[in-house]
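LOG
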Amino acid sequence: MQVLVDTSIWIDYFKGAAHSKALDYLIDENLIVSNEIILAELIPYLKLKRQTRLVQLLQTVTTTPLKIDWKEIILLQSKCLSADTNGIGIPDLIIAQNAKQHGSLIYTLDKHFSLLKNVALPLIEWVGTVKNETNHP
């Protein structure tokens, strides 16, 4: 199964922090994917900091095409607002939808995805962490 690696994990990885070993495992097993939103969040900052090698690394990761279903995004946002979970931005909803469309797990440190799972369980029950899903560090 593919794992969509969220921006928060990449930042953690670049700092050599807690989730580096798990991401190393996913990279070695060729399980990671990304999308244009995640790359748009990461690459401009890395270019600004002249991190050419990291930009090149990210550009080699397989990207899953975004096919935004705005009706579903509106439905998810409505469910979030109805459940008083209004801190979830449209980019996170699109990332969640993208993972769902491609049958990917989301590997993230962002609590928004857990909130989404609680609000719209039938639509996004696929959200998980690599540690829980693969039993690796």
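LOG (cont.) second protein
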Amino acid sequence: MIDSIKKAMLAGVGAAVLTKDKVEEALGELVEKGKISANDAKETARKISDDGKQEFESASATLQEKFDELLSKMGQKNSERIDSLETKVSELEARLSEFEAANAKSAKSK
């Protein structure tokens, strides 16, 4: 499961790099055609980069929160299961003690 999450994160980073390359290429073409200035292209690239970083950080924080929540739920379920098993073991130990006591009495009376 953790490998799947890592792969998803790496895919997101890969997509961001690919997008950055495409943005730079498109802005370069606009500069070459004279549609925008080099300074405007740099500013636009910086803004897109900043927005992408914020989006990535937000997505990472949300993913971390969901992952922590999932681990917490799993831990809680395991804790409940362990408590149930401990109760059953205690009940079985009590029954075994009763059985051993009954066998000891029956062996003495023979």
